[in-house]
Amino acid sequence: MKEIQLIMAQADQLYSMQEIDHALTTLANKLTQAFGDDNPVMLCVMNGSVMTTGHLLPKLNFPLELDYIHATRYGEKTVGGDLVWQSQPTIDLTGRTVILLEDIYDQGVTLMALRKYCEEAGAKTVACLALVEKLHDNKVGTVPEFIGMTVPDRYVFGFGMDYKGYWRNAAGIYAVAGS
Questions:
Q1: Which residues, 6+ apart, have CB-to-CB distance to 78 below 8 Å?
Q2: Would residue 34 count as lying in a domain?
Q3: Apex 78 CA angle, 177 and 55, nearest 5
Q4: CA proximity to 34, closest of 64, 4, 1
Q5: Which end of the chain is more exposed for a tag (fewer CB within 10 A), N or C?
Q6: Which region among 46-60, 75-89, 114-128, 147-161 has the lowest average model confidence (pLDDT)?
Q7: What is the pTM of this model?
Q8: Side-chain half-sphere of 109: how many Cα atoms within 13 Å?
Q9: Are 46 and 68 a contacting pair, CB within 8 Å?
Q10: What is the mean pLDDT of residues 143-163?
Q11: ∠119-124-127 over CA atoms, to 5°?
């Protein structure tokens, strides 16, 4: 527990809650313009997108359905591995517009698999929103259509993103010192 506390004490804050809220308002306006008439299914990508989803949905003033999808490459590790499926949506995606709500677009491996799953489940359209994009050159697949903010190529946590399973509850987005 000492390591976990030290990580926060030494972390660099990249974004405040006010900056995150502003980015989410901008994203909500773009989603409303693009999908406000589509009756979309919003899929919260667990666990990291709980905060993003919870703060974004009240800003959307159009009918939508909400479900979740859970596949991870990290678990409680700090390095990604093989994709492990935890849960698939219960809403039928056939013929629907699906919007994947992601916390972070890092390499894109998970996003690529989630898009493929939704397409194979019969979705008419699949779009992705990522609160943050990590800036580096190791990307695969397609870039999310909606990105709120960017972060440097450092290990980030807070506002849903974790450090070894902790600090998802941090009010803001932080980078591990020295990363």
A1: 155, 163, 164
A2: yes
A3: 80
A4: 64
A5: N
A6: 75-89
A7: 0.92
A8: 12
A9: yes
A10: 97
A11: 70
Tens-place pLDDT, residues 37-94: 999 999 999 999 999 999 999 999 999 999 999 987 655 555 555 677 888 999 999 9
pLDDT at position 75, please? 52
User: Quick one: pLDDT at residue 85?
Assistant: 81
Question: Rounded to 5 degrees, what angle do the CA atoms 48, 38, 70 make?
Answer: 20
Torsions phi, psi for 2 (to 5 deg) = -60, -40
Helix (H, G, I), strand (E, B) or coil at 174: strand
Q: Which amino acid is at 65?
A: E
CATH number of the structural domain spanning residue 93: 3.40.50.2020
Domain that holds residue 56: 2-174
Neighbour tally for 92: CB within 10 Å: 12
